[in-house]
Amino acid sequence: MEQERSEACAEAYGIIARVRVAMAERLVGKSEIVDAILTAVMSEGHVLLEGVPGLAKTLAVRTFAESAGLLYKRIQFTPDLLPGDVTGTLFYDAATGSFVPRQGPVFANIVLADEINRAPAKVQSALLEAMEERQVTMGDRSLPLPSPFFVLATQNPIEHEGTFRLPEAQLDRFMLKVVVGYPDESEELDVVLRYADSAVLNHAGRTRPSGPALAPADIVNLKKAAQAVRFEKDAAAYVVAVVRATRPRLDAKDLPQSLRELSRYIEYGASPRGSLALYRASRAAALLAGRDYVLPDDVKRSALAVLRHRIIPSYEAEADRVNSDAIVKGVLSAVPVP
What we know:
By secondary structure, this protein is an alpha/beta fold. The chain folds into 2 domains: 2-222, P-loop containing nucleotide triphosphate hydrolases (Rossmann fold); 229-334, Helicase, Ruva Protein, domain 3. It is 48% helix and 14% strand. It has 16 helices and 11 strands. It has a 5-stranded parallel sheet with strand order 2-5-8-1-9. A two-stranded antiparallel sheet has the order 3-4. Strands 6-7 form a two-stranded antiparallel ribbon. A hairpin with a 2-residue loop joins strand 6 (135-138) and strand 7 (141-144). Helix 2 (31-43) packs across helix 13, helix 11 runs parallel beside helix 14 and helix 14 packs antiparallel against helix 16.
């Protein structure tokens, strides 16, 4: 059993290295996006990418899809988008006298929901069944989605005109929320030197990476390797303790003073779905770090992306300008490490 786990993880390390090299052919930096996508692949999760325009979020998703040879569809969310534009609709076939499903762009391996907060809630909710159940219902039929399937969504955090806030129920469906920041000076210089020519820039994202980096069998092997990562009971208990600490418990007498102080900043905390997501993300983090066992540092490294969108700050937090990232960091500092 131990030998099988070691072999599965060793194979996964090689796959991960190939993907990172293939992504680097187009991307400068952005290791957090690459690792988030790989985590989603290994854990069958979905990722929300938040950042201002021009930070290569769409390019990263397209690069991964093409380097993996997966079916990729992009949906540009706009205020006039309809649910059927995402999932597809039934149309009447006069030849057969019956209604036939016409599949929408959600029937793909990788679906990029670009600027997801620009569409109204009715359209956003059209993704809910697909993200959770891996199927789409049309009339009296339930149509399965391709496997693998995961949604990578982007949103702009600074532009609020013509946008619609994502409902909490949909935010909870995303395993990870990655905040994409500006590149550092050396990375930005590399971007300028590499893509300064406008002709090159226009086609930078259209040339395919040199050779496939990921085969369908590799995706299966990555999932198996992630499941084989050793997760000791103490580390799993630490995951649960971190998630439970995000829930307000002002009256708990056994709660440390630091956590009681944080509780007043939390209106609602993460649900058990957050515990499962943190558990799976920690396994993937260990594998990405080249280990077949989970350390508390893997939990800490994954916690921000897993929990930041699952915590609803209280009015007092907004008044004191304490956001969910600060709350998660406070929880990690307060919860004892095993």
